[in-house]
Task: structure prediction
Amino acid sequence: MPSALVAIAALALCLRVWQLDALGFNSDEAVYAGQAASLAGNPNYTPFFPVFRAHPMLFQTLLSPFFRAGEVDVAGRVVVAALGVATVLAVHLLGARLYGRRVGLVAALLVAVMPYHVIVTRQVLLDGPMVLFATLTLYCLVRFVQGQQVLWYVAAGGMLGLTMLTKETSVVLAGGVYAFLALTPTVRRPVRLSLLAVATMAAVFATHPVSQAMAGRSQTGKSYLVWQLFRRPNHSMGFYLETVPPAMGLLVVAAAAGGLWWLRRHRSWRETLLLSWIAAPVLFFQLWPVKGFQYLLPAVAPVAVLAARALTGMPVPERIRRLLRRVDRAGAGPSRAVRTVRTAVLAVVTLSLLVPSWHAVNRADNATFLAGSGGVPGGREAGRWLATNTPQGSVVLTLGPSMANIIQYYGHRRSYGLSVSPNPLRRNPSYEPLPNPDWWLRHNDLHYVVWDSFSAGRSAFFSERLMVLIRRYHGRVVHTEFVNGTDSTGARVPVPVIIIYEVRP
Result:
């Protein structure tokens, strides 16, 4: 392995493990880790987290050996961070295979320090591992186009099956493959071989429904599908445009787009493939009502390769070239000054990614939270306080299911979300609603109530309703988690983000 690639991998690992334990799990992390622990038979989690939920179990199965006993969170994140570094290496292979070793190294560097990829691969989420398999799928497809070998085409189908087995929504990438083949008539498209690749993909993914059927949970996937189809939009249509380009790096996106224009005379099937791979998830999730910060992560690899292609090969205007030749009197051909300028531009782009990534991995105290962007401040501490200071068997009412997941993971206390809808079409099938929380409180079946600012910011209605219940049932503050904030004068003040109340009839 070249020393430059080793240095890039080391930088990628450093950004993904630095202060990895500063914050506890967010809701999705708690769910996936809880599934892994239940799969491993950990008695702390089997009562609270069913093995089968919305997604396939490949990633949770990989994690399960680390979750056999006790409370585990750092180990799960380390596994994801290692898979994130593996993705950086896979991007190098992809870029080098498409455009040469230099492009591969630059693309790997961009992904190594890209805030979008760094943030997601520091969390126990499905998207980081899924993108590793997606990048390898793209690599196998490139190998097939270049060498026309049957093995690589079938391998692409099998790798896409693994990608779907990590997160089933990645099936949209098959649309990218289809679009590429449809738009590139020069690429050989044998029907029988395509059927074999699709059969391989289906056979790999079939382990998920087969395992559900053998476990007697064949209706689980159908229930989640109905819920997803009827979910209300959680963000505006401009959500991805506002969040993803800055997370990828505006200069990276500009370099990728600019390179497509300035190098348009050198366009080939390679650009068609990368653009098709980007378009598939972008179009699907833009139209899909439910949006998540990490959903467009499969676009990271092709965007980085296109940006690296531009940064290493974008032509320098002749007027600037003549000016640089006056500075560089060394000789003919590409001047050292031109290479120096390109290196300086690459350094600026890299620094524009590294600074926000470094800021993100050091931001452990924040009163705001975006799902998929990191851990929840105070969540782990509140859960552990409940585990230590409340009787075994205590039942907790939270504002929403997100905090309920965190409380169940760290506090090992049964928790219910007030905002969970009694309508089965409007709720996650894993969550049990409380149609009449007044009745539960009146009969002393709920013992603690947890308010959190993150859920309150999303639903003022349920926040006010929770406070009404707290006042009605003599709520008494027994614990509060704070983060650092600022007041109207700009002075640093503690801001309460999680408040635990003890209630009684």
